[in-house]
Design goal:
There is one protein chain. The chain is built from 3 helices and 10 strands, in the order E-H-E-H-E-E-E-H-E-E-E-E-E. The chain has a single domain, classed as Purple Acid Phosphatase, chain A, domain 2. The relative contact order is 0.22. The chain has about 170 residues and is of the alpha/beta class. It starts with a strand and ends with a strand. It has a 5-stranded mixed sheet with strand order 3-2-1-9-10, with helices on one face.
């Protein structure tokens, strides 16, 4: 058995805005076992939509004022034997690996957001650091992105940044 998680962050979807998740994100979500959202959903309805698709685990982002009290600042969970930690803001890139390893020493993967900069790399002692970027606000990045994390039998089988421009 394996667990396929679709990883999102920084969707920044506000009530009354014409902005929405790209169709490519909905295609990724099709068949997801779980959804991980690393904060800045902004509107609680986004969480409701995601929860209707698959079990959703999210953390509070700095723009999630409407979700204060509903979402934790950090979260840890297990996906088929893999310990995954989540936080919105991991701080500056310099020193990030050390900070996240100290904060989540038992996590095999730390999912984070905030910067809108996709990142999939190795931290300290093999810890995987994973920022899916943003599917709605690319800012200075060339593409809007989301992520896929697949875990099976206590190991990370795949991490992938997916371009969702459409």
């Amino acid at each position: 058995m394996s667990i396929r998680a679709v990883v999102l962050a920084d969707t920044h979807l506000r009530a009354g805005s014409s902005r929405r998740l790209p169709e490519a994100v909905y295609r990724l979500l099709d068949g997801a076992d779980v959804i991980l959202h690393a904060g800045d959903l902004v509107d609680a309805r986004v969480l409701d939509v995601l929860e209707a698709i698959a079990p959703t685990y999210a953390v509070l982002g700095n723009n999630d004022h409407a979700l204060a009290g509903r979402l934790p600042l950090t979260r840890t969970l297990e996906l088929d034997g893999v310990n995954v930690a989540m936080i919105h803001d991991s701080g500056a890139a310099a020193g990030r690996a050390g900070r996240l390893h100290r904060r989540f020493p038992d996590a095999a993967v730390v999912v984070f957001g905030h910067s809108h900069i996709p990142f999939d790399g190795e931290g300290i002692d093999g810890q995987r650091l994973f920022n899916p970027g943003s599917p709605t606000e690319r800012r200075s990045q060339p593409h809007r992105t989301a992520g896929v994390l697949e875990c099976a039998d206590g190991a990370v089988r795949e991490t992938r940044i997916v371009i969702v421009d459409d």
